Amino acid sequence: MRSSADLGLLIHAIRVRHGLSQADLAARLGISQRYLSELETGKPKVLNEKFFDVLRDLGIVLSFRETIDE
Description:
The chain is mostly helical. The protein has helices at 4-17, 22-29, 33-40, 49-57. It is built from four helices and no strands. α2 crosses α3.
């Protein structure tokens, strides 16, 4: 992952694979469909606990790996 757009594409793909609409997932998490749409397009105005709720609900685990530029 190199951008919020990459993460958004992943969220979208996993949501679709689970057979959930944006409205369904948003309701399940108690967030607005608009916020979920912003996440999926890589343009969230705010990254807060709700962001991590979406990831957790879809089974997405973020990890960190430092790259060394040569």
